[in-house]
Amino acid sequence: MTCTFRCGSACDHPVPNPTDNEYFGDVVTAALSRRSVIKGSAAGALLLSAGAALAPTPAAASSMAGMPKLPTAHGPSKPSHGRGHHGGVDSLDFTPVAPNKLDQLSVPKGYHQAVVAAWGDPVTPDAPRFDFERQTAHAQSKQFGYNNDYLMVLPLGRGPRGSERALMVINHEYTDEILMFRGWKDGAGAPIEQLRIAMAAHGMSVVEIERVGRTGRWRLARSGRRPFNRRFTATTPFLVTGPAAGHALLKTKADPSGRRVLGTLNNCSGGVTPWGTTLHGEENINQYFEASAPVDPAYVDAFKRYGLPIAANSGKFWSRVDERFDLAKHPNEANRFGWVVEIDPHDPDAVPRKRTMLGRFKHEGATVTIAKDGRAVVYLGDDEKFDYLYKFVSTDRQRKGNSAAAHRHNMDLLDHGTLYVAKFTGDGSDDGQYDGTGEWIKLCTDKESFVPGMSVAEVLINTRLAADKMGPTKMDRPEDVERNPVTGSVYMACTNNDSRTAAQVDEANPRATNKHGHIVEFDEEHQDAAARTFTWRLFLVCGDPEDPSTYFGGYDKSKVSPISCPDNVAFDGSGNLWISTDGNALGSNDGLFATATRGPERGHVKQFLTVPIGAETCGPLVSEDQRTVFVAVQHPGELDGGTPETPKSHWPFGDQPRPAVACVWKD
Ligand code: FEO
Ligand code: CA
Ligand code: CA
């Protein structure tokens, strides 16, 4: 069921990267074959020693100045200096939650929890009350969408009654129609209104929230004008910007300009910019398109690489609502999705943008940091088995301050720069570590392509095809990638890849049939995010700690929580890494984990919470003092056989399961 609804069964399709980019194994197999212990690592021990503890780099922290911060439980956030607020450096003083299969949000002793917003809750002040039995697309377009994923909280100051207020920005990645509607079979026979409801349940919400008294609890703001509250859906007008805007491959019958797109789809994770906007990755966009007949042969290679239909094929049947979703008739429509979108939550009239300079692929998220010289850097994962890690570096520097001129300048930053793809080279495993060096391979700038035979616009529109020609490293589903604001190191979650064979392992993806995923840690040269080279090492190799192939940053594995399928990452004010999981393959519910990244506690993974049955943990957001945590509980009850008549989860309100954002806070 998860496969069907989340990613259009991408996991069950042939791997869409058929290129013969060299695997590390191909290059150094000869060398490694002499080291039988190492070559056997696909099934055996990863003989890793503890990575070098990394000195904090104050420069890294100061480069994040101006980045919005979640208010802490004890008032406005303060700048972090890399020290834990409670008990010293990197303290994570909670008792881990045990793995479980409970239909609840389980949090450590001493913590409380509450739902902040659930599917169907009012977003716009005129939104009708949610009624599961009488849903309409009109109502849904004003209500909180389905399957919350990325979340960000941007402080607003005090509300009308003195309460502390903030804007919560949320992605609604996809819909589980079989849980949303009674009697759902497929899109072919469903009432058209249900297809429209599903379209309205996609996109994003911007919603004002308020702190309850002086507690750590947050809820939807109940009073005031709430002028920023807004929904973006599959039909909201977007402006396409950057070098590919207006290109022939983006033009359609409905939009001959190639610059105006209706809607955003499958917004998975995202990021916040230092200039106050948010970025949202359009991920598994292939599943929204169908073909009533074979598509134009000129599109076949690209469509195959993106998992899009090429022959007569049925998808969600959204073409019953709007013919543009039929690729036999409108092949370019698919090229208008798969981008990173930027919205300005503080301007309810701002037209959202699709930023073509960040490339088109299955964008997991887009996290922003500022290079030493002030340029904006965005890390971008392409979440598919054997796909790549990318990075964008802007041409211009971020302009600080809140002036209108600075804002205009910064709103142009992501349209000009350089797009890179990553190559990870192992240095051999005989040093006892899975580590090595890496380089960022230039794909294009906004003016020049470095990919033979492809123009700038072609590189950006068919980025996967372009990258294939340049020899990057095929990763095990690179998802969230984020820079540690305290240490400057960058962390990439590779969720899993059960299709990697023993012949395909490399030092950065060292396990065949990688069911549990791993986390790569890398340091850009001179800790400058704009650098062209980096060093890397594996930080976590996930799974049951008793499994000899696992590695927990060098920490004593008898003392860690089991963790499987890392997906999203976040940091607290001490630079601890927080990891949410998607698809726990160890038989427990998914959850949120935390670990120090340096010092004696490096690799001491502790489970902070578990989500209800069938759910995935998304969008973790941790206050600097670790006392308030927001988490998006996505697709509770999404298990085979789950329907409104036979729900597999009753979270959070005891009846039908409803995806919801929860906050967790300490006494
Ligand atoms: Fe939508 Fe890659 O998770
Ligand atoms: Ca090595
Ligand atoms: Ca994800």
Automatic annotation (TrEMBL):
Source lineage: Bacteria, Bacillati, Actinomycetota, Actinomycetes, Propionibacteriales
Top-rank taxon, per record: Bacteria
Region (Disordered): 62-93
UniProt cross-references to Pfam families, sorted A to Z: PhoX
Protein name: Secreted PhoX family phosphatase
Matching InterPro entries: PhoX, TAT_signal
Annotated signal sequence range: none
